[in-house]
Amino acid sequence: MQQNDLLRLFSWHMLDAAVPQPACELIGAGSYTICNSASGLLTTSPGAGVGLALYDKLAGVGGIGNFLLAEPATAADERKSDYYVSSGLPAFIEALVAAGAHRQRLVAVVAGGSCLVDDLFNAGDFSPATQVIDAALAILERERISIASMEVGGLQQLSLLLDAENWSASIKLIEGVREGSPAVQIKQPSTAAIEEAIDGARPIP
Fold first, then answer.
1. Which residues of 107-139 are buried (b: 16+ CB within 10 A; e: fewer)?
2. Strand partners, 110
3. Range 108-120 average pLDDT
């Protein structure tokens, strides 16, 4: 499967899966937004990508980022730097610091890595979702940013919400499916199949 196909498959949910509440800013896939205490609510739906709420409560600075893939596969893909954890997440962190956040006080809430493509799940191919989560966690560890909470993996679509008024972040399950989507029968993988898929994970060609 080509990288462009993955981008399309993993970003369909941004079109109609989550409807933000009034006065709630929706952060799209492949982007991040910085906010302050007067910004209200930010939300995103990371799907198979990774969503991160980062904030420094004392400085009153935070934001949400939504990144689709771990890293670009080709030099041409590097132009879309905010799509990727490898380039987008460091840029997000630096933008927070530039806005007044203290790097050592940043706290993260992490969501995403869902397997939303039935064929991939039934084939035991979790590699794209696994890679994007692992890449994000590695950068958070390198930057010594603590994780307050995290919910990743599985089949369910999640939303990530940041309340800038009191600097709290939450992860919620999005109920229902897209209108018109056919019902599907999903074969639950065994523990051995999951472990084998993880061991066989490789970078996207």
1. bbbbbbbbbbbeebbeebbbbbbbbbbbbbbeb
2. 52, 150
3. 75
Sign of the Cα torsion 20, 25, 31, 32 reads negative
When mean pLDDT is compared over 111-120, 136-145, 155-164, 174-183, the highest value belongs to: 136-145
Give the span between the Cα atoms of 121 and 137, in whole angstroms.
Answer: 22
Encoded tokens for 78: 């590097």
Distance CA 147, CA 140 (A): 8
| Contact status, residue 97 vs residue 103, Cβ threshold 8 Å | yes
The sign one gets for the Cα dihedral 21, 23, 24, 29 is positive
Residue 116's pLDDT band (boundaries 50, 70, 90)? low
CB atoms closer than 10 angstroms to residue 55? 26
Give the C-alpha separation, 92 to 184, whole Å.
37
Contact 198, 130 (CB under 8 A): yes
The secondary structure of 24-50, three-state, reads EEECCCCEEEEEECCCCEEEECCCCCE
At 129, is the secondary structure helix, strand, or coil? helix
Say if residue 100's pLDDT is above 90.
yes
